[in-house]
Amino acid sequence: MMGLIQKDNLVLRERVSELEAELTKRDLAITELSTKVGELQTQTERDQDQGQRWQQLHEEWQSRNEMVRQAEQATRVALESAQSRLERLRSKIIQATFNVSGIKSLATEISDNHILEALQRIISERSDYYNQLKQKGVRVPPLQQSEIMLTKPKKAEKPPAERAAALVPGAGWTHQLAPRGGNHWPGPDQFFVPKRLQPHQDVPFKDHP
Q1: pTM score, whole prediction
Q2: Are both 9 and 62 inside the same structural domain?
Q3: Taking a C-beta distance cutoff of 8 angstroms, is the pair 166, 158 a contact?
Q4: Using an 8 Å Cβ cutoff, are 103 and 128 in contact?
Q5: Which of 43, 97, 171, 195 could form a disulfide with 118 if both were Cys (CB 3.0 to 4.6 A apart)?
Q6: Which pLDDT tens digit goes with each residue over 48-69?
């Protein structure tokens, strides 16, 4: 009887050892699987971060692409406007250059070189004519507008009486009064004459009250 009990105990011990060994193996497998799961989770998070970065880069690229497209469209509009203005300016230059007397109109298309040559010829002729007038003693204004502004004298300040007269209606007219007690009509130099009239301009006579 004791032998059977000992034999059963030995079998049970062997079975327990086998189960413990199997449990140890399962624990190792679980540990390995847990490590693998952790690695996969880390890789998944890394992939998600990379996907978010790619999404941000894609959105930035789309935004920049839209900005470039708008800038290109604005540049194209500005270029077309500049070309149109340049063409209008070229047309005006052609009209102003080749409608001058003494310049033969061209039947073919006018190039920029023709326009430049014609402008240079007109400027040269204008300078020669200006020099001829100065040599003859004719008073002519300077050719350059900047010279006109530099050589133009400043207007003297008006006296207080003239400044007050400028506020009165009709102060732009000058006249000479006949002596008091005179019975004669005023002469031609005693009529009202506008100050701003050019020489030799007809002036309507107006009796002095």
Answers
A1: 0.36
A2: yes
A3: yes
A4: no
A5: 97
A6: 999 999 999 999 999 999 999 9
